Amino acid sequence: MSASTALQGRTALVTGATSGIGKAIAQNLAAQGASVVLHGRDRARGEAMVKEIETGGGSARFITADLTDAEDTLRLAAEAGAVDILVNSAGLYEFAPTAASDAASFDRHVAVNTRAPFLLVGALAPGMAERGQGSIVIVGSSAARMPAPVGAAYGASKAGVEVLTRYWATEFGPSGVRVNTVSPGPVHTEGTRAMLGEHIAMLDKTSARGRAGDPGEIAEIVSFLVSDASSYVNGAVLFADGGELSALPS
């Protein structure tokens, strides 16, 4: 990742910015010159991220918020203020069989993975539309199209943002605001390592590419989607899964 000024003068809000894919996205946007508003749940990690970005010559500030709480999510939008870029990267995944899950687990998935982007777009996209430009990216998941024996609530919540992306592209596109989703396949992150433990090598076996992805690879795609280089890309769901979906029988 090399520094540039492609996003100079723009402000970006990145949810889930203190770990995994969200952290890589925030770092990349800052390296492209954007002033980044970092969201996370851990203040110490958030402040460490701010220091890291500022040490590298970038601009950042941190806001903590609980995305399972609708009011707190709207407070995040209010404190972020006018932004040019919104990246909904925060995600919750609790992989369990349906019978071993409950209503509270389902509600948590929907709250973080689907409702939070809905509320943030509703709060921030109108301001972008008034200014005549803006870019919104949602981090989805190939799980929306790749069913498995576990994780039905997660897959459903991620499928929801694909539908929202198409609606928002139609709603806000005429005002100069683009909305797209990038859906990663298996990616090596702190979360996947904690979830899979000694079975982490399984990630590499699930990809047609022969390896799992790196958070930085997803961050580069997001940087493209929020930049002027993708000015005619709107309402797209871009799969970054190493060929996982294309390897399925037709």
UniProtKB/TrEMBL annotation:
It comes from the Bacteria. InterPro entries: NAD(P)-bd_dom_sf, SDR_fam. Pfam families: adh_short_C2. GO terms for molecular function: oxidoreductase activity. The keyword Phosphoprotein does not apply. Transmembrane segments: none annotated. Keywords: Oxidoreductase. Belongs to the short-chain dehydrogenases/reductases (SDR) family. This is Short-chain dehydrogenase. It comes from Actinacidiphila guanduensis.
